[in-house]
Amino acid sequence: MYNRVALIGLGLIAGSMSLAMRRAGVAGEITGYARSQATRDTAREIGLVDRVCDTATEAVKDADLIVLAVPVGAMGPVMAEIAPALKPGAVVTDVGSVKKSVLDAVMPHIPEGAHFIGTHPMAGTEHSGPRSGFAELFDNRWCLIVPPEGANEGEVKKLEDFWSALGANIERMDPEHHDIVCAVVSHVPHLIAYTMVGVADDLRRVTDQEVIKFSAAGFRDFTRIAASDPTMWRDVFLTNKEAALEILGRFTEELFALQRAIRTGDGDTLHDYFTRTRAIRRGIIEAGQDTDAPDFGRGKKGG
Amino acid sequence: MYNRVALIGLGLIAGSMSLAMRRAGVAGEITGYARSQATRDTAREIGLVDRVCDTATEAVKDADLIVLAVPVGAMGPVMAEIAPALKPGAVVTDVGSVKKSVLDAVMPHIPEGAHFIGTHPMAGTEHSGPRSGFAELFDNRWCLIVPPEGANEGEVKKLEDFWSALGANIERMDPEHHDIVCAVVSHVPHLIAYTMVGVADDLRRVTDQEVIKFSAAGFRDFTRIAASDPTMWRDVFLTNKEAALEILGRFTEELFALQRAIRTGDGDTLHDYFTRTRAIRRGIIEAGQDTDAPDFGRGKKGG
User: Fold this and answer.
1) Residue A42 DSSP class
2) Is A296 in Cβ contact with B213 (below 8 Å)?
3) Domains in chain A: how many in total?
4) CATH code of the domain containing A39
5) Which residues of B touch A231 (CB under 8 A)?
6) Are A122 and B216 in contact (CB under 8 A)?
7) Is position B121 within any domain?
8) Could you tell me the keywords of this UniProt record (chains A, B) (predicted)?
9) Region B286-292: what's the mean pLDDT?
10) Which regions in chain A score pLDDT beneath 70?
């Protein structure tokens, strides 16, 4: 599909893309670059890509598809660095969790004749780094395709086919809508999970050991979410500020209403609220994003 | 271990106890009662216990161990009802998620010569009802043993051995400490999950269909938590009010600090906070309450 693909950044997503591209046979040569020497060494050692380069410009030379797989805050500088080395007609894409600010940061650097099309594969684990990738990460997960205004339709279609070949389901979205949807289903839930884990850790009346020991039933799911990469999440909240603050505002408003129901002993309000949420859960099972089976098939098995 | 065991309430926990008792061979006859005719019919149909009774007093007749497996708010009335029918020396226990208020509600009704010892098996799934039980639910999960002051040590030990035979790990706790620990690791995380799911459902700018479709990565775990039994959770918050409100207060305080960091663009605060939570997650994996493996072994497989 693409004769040469360059991966800039060699973490969980880029590593999984390399393995999924090999599985699907959709790339001629896969080059890779990571800022850290240690990451490049590891990638070479495990053969994560066909050729690890010591500079980003070397990696993107003659590449037909360039994937920016770096934290959202680093997209602009990386794009500025590689722009002069792009071959004519090259397609640049990213895999960031935020789209409006990535487009703002990247588009001014895209040279005449090259293309930029944002993507967001909604898949991940709590692990990061070059050893964390696996070919099945994107299987049956959504990949949101977010083209800028006036994007070349042929190149957008080709990139969609590429993500389909990697196992993902495709949906197109505009940048603003993408950012608010992700604030709801991903960004704010992560922030909340981080907060709850932080509260437990701070609490004097309950020891860390107790929190860890008795973490089944609720808290454990929070800790799993809260173990994701700190740099990635910092950038998400700094760059999707507006949508995150909007959803957070709604969240605290509702939480305060439930808190008041607890304080005043208003059992009906609590019961009604808890009943309503069951329907959403059923919808998720029906939509195939989770199963009702004992083992959820999360993580390395994809799902 | 106990010649006759009576289960009052025939939902997930009681049903699983019956199946686990049979597996372990620790009960002579198991009787059961549920308030709802439909539940009793189902329990009879699937042979969940040895004998389904149409009244609670019939079920507890000649029982050596009586298990109150009803919502926390129903413990007092049920105890008052069965108290006159208890045989001398009978041990009554409960499986509620809250302990201080259960002891307050139940202890005044315990007849001279009978014993009450609270327990809290920390295991569950998002399912409820007589068909949801399975023998492995308690395997390698914690069961907190919460005796009232002055409890008979021999009977407490025997009940601990009983729960061990059902597969659980045992830890003793006093009622106050139990309630604050559970507020942190279970009750407040559940409330937060319910709230987040409610926010998503309410939001006009994002459709329910989108929330359901793109629920991987964060939100899905929340919906799973938020699908638990509404009546049980209502009673938890009404009866563990003090501890829940204390932890909620801490939570909103920390959440506001992170919200301010997002608003002011303070990336260092966010990064530091997100880094700190990783350690807790590692501790949980090391403590064996979760695994690092692809399939978490949650739900019906126990774990």
Assistant:
1) H
2) no
3) 2
4) 3.40.50.720
5) 271
6) yes
7) yes
8) Amino-acid biosynthesis, Aromatic amino acid biosynthesis, NAD, Oxidoreductase, Tyrosine biosynthesis
9) 58
10) 204-205, 215-218, 284-303
Q: Could you tell me the strand order of the sheet in which B91-94 lies? A: B51-52, B27-33, B2-8, B65-68, B91-94, B115-121, B142-146, B169-172
On whether both A194 and A254 belong to a single domain, the answer is yes
**Contact, B303 vs B284, CB < 8 A?**
no
Nearest CA in chain B to A173: B210
Instruction: Give the end of a domain, one of A173, A198, A215.
Output: A173
Closest-approach residue (CA) in chain B for A301: B294
Provide φ and ψ at B186, rounded to 5°.
-135, -55
Q: Are strands B142-146 and B115-121 parallel, antiparallel or unpaired?
A: antiparallel
Task: Read off the tokens for B183.
Answer: 């507020």
Q: Are residues B50 and B75 in the same domain?
A: yes
Confidence at residue B297, expressed as pLDDT on a 0 to 100 scale: 32
Whether the pLDDT of residue B172 is over 70: the answer is yes
Q: In this structure, are A77 and A201 located in the same domain?
A: no
Q: Do A270 and B203 touch (CB under 8 A)?
A: no
Q: Are residues A161 and A34 in the same domain?
A: yes
Residue contact B259–A238, C-beta within 8 A = no
The pLDDT tens digits for A32-90 are 999 999 999 999 999 999 999 999 999 999 999 999 999 999 999 999 999 999 999 99
Domain that residue A99 falls in = 2-173
B167 and B104 inside one domain: yes
What CATH number has the domain bearing residue A215?
1.10.3660.10
> Token pair for residue A108?
């001014």
- Contact criterion met (CB < 8 Å) for A214 and B142: yes
B23 and B168 part of one domain:
yes
**Cβ atoms A138, A121 nearer than 8 A:** yes
Shortest distance between the Cα of B26 and any Cα of chain A, in A, equals: 26
- Contact (CB<8Å) A271/B220: no
Q: How far is B31 from chain A (nearest CA, A)?
A: 28
